[in-house]
Amino acid sequence: MRVIAGEAKGRRLKVPKRKGVRPTSDYLREALFGILGSSVRGVRFLDLYAGSGAVGIEALSRGGAEVVFLEQDPACLRVLRENVERTGLGQNRLLGGDVLRVLPRLARQRESFDIIFLDPPYGTGLAPRTLEVVASGGLLRPHGVVIVEHFAKEPLPERIGNLRRIRERTHGQTMLSFYARAPEVEQ
User: Fold this and answer.
1) pLDDT tens digits, one per residue of 85-144
2) How far apart are CA 134 and CA 122, in angstroms?
3) What is the phi/psi pair of residue 40, to 5°?
4) What is the pLDDT of residues 12-55, one digit of tens each?
5) CATH of 26-181, one of 3.40.605.10, 3.40.50.150, 1.20.970.10, 3.40.30.10
6) First and final CA of the chain: distance in angstroms?
7) Where would I find the H helices in 62-98?
8) Count of alpha carbons within 13 Å of 122, Cβ hemisphere only?
């Protein structure tokens, strides 16, 4: 696995050797960042269930202002830390802990992000639960986007809280679902 483009292009990334760890492939990252284009430059990016950190590192390499990585598994966190150091990209924070517990704390600290990416383990039900926490927490900036990488045979709802799905892309057995804030309806 490698960084595809930007400042750290070509740098190799380690992958955690853990059962159930499924890093985002080079192909899927290329597709994702092809969709995002230059909108990554200068943004605050939150990488949830970060694993190896490949997606957040790609965002930094392509000009992201800051990436906050959140990963619960200690072995993955060690590999993530090593990958961040290996690329030499600054402006990042690594947080360890349960995503569903740490997100409310970030919201209380008034953290907000332009892009929130989540790639929870498949078959756990964590994707919709995490989207609910993101929707209720004020973590997404007004014109921000939430992107969920998930198993294509486990579709996500069109709406969760104040988030509305705006796009889906399927790549093999993986789906990327994009969410944005739903426009508020005046009463």
Assistant:
1) 999 998 899 999 999 999 999 999 999 999 999 999 988 999 999 999 999 989 999 999
2) 19
3) -80, -25
4) 999 887 665 667 777 888 999 999 998 999 999 999 999 999 99
5) 3.40.50.150
6) 50
7) 74-87
8) 17
